[in-house]
Design goal:
The chain is mainly alpha-helical. The chain contains 6 helices and 5 strands.
Length: 153
């Protein structure tokens, strides 16, 4: 069923299904681009629109892209997070670090916060291991604890 969900997600990008000019079937040509099988008119899904605009307007902000393509900034951010969309390193930032708010070009955290996040996570695991070891030590001398353990199995 995972495929179904992925297909639904793809549909969020407003795939053009029929030609705006003649009503013909739009054939997918890759990277968000579609062509009418009758009149050869080209159309784009949201991803294609954003990608094309960003390529032609390097350094555009998310707000500018949204205004020009009518694609919501939220969708643009999702495309970046999913790695479907790449912005040039010298372009204005599209995203803010989710921890400190600093401008970043891809992903969810700036490199500093990503490192901090991992340190925190590692510390959490360390604490959990300490707790578990403590729990096990207590359980050893406890007869009822051992019985319950056997029943559970
Ligand atoms: Zn057509
Ligand atoms: Zn940060």
């Amino acid at each position: 069923m995972r495929e179904d969900r992925e297909l639904l997600q793809l549909n969020d990008y407003n795939i053009p299904q029929t030609c705006k000019v003649c009503g013909g079937v739009m054939i997918f040509r890759g990277v968000g681009e579609y062509q009418c099988e009758n009149c050869k008119a080209i159309d784009y899904d949201d991803y294609g629109k954003v990608r094309k605009y960003v390529e032609e307007h390097k350094g555009a902000t998310a707000a500018e892209v949204e205004a020009a393509t009518k694609v919501k900034q939220r969708s643009i951010r999702n495309m970046l997070k999913e790695g479907r969309l790449q912005v040039a390193p010298d372009s204005k930032a599209f995203l803010n670090c989710e921890m400190c708010g600093r401008k970043i070009n891809s992903g969810r955290l700036c490199p500093d916060c990503e490192a901090k996040y991992h340190r925190k996570l590692e510390e959490k695991v360390r604490q959990m291991q300490k707790k578990n070891m403590h729990g096990v030590a207590m359980g050893h001398g406890d007869a009822t604890g051992e019985k319950r353990f056997k029943l559970d199995r």
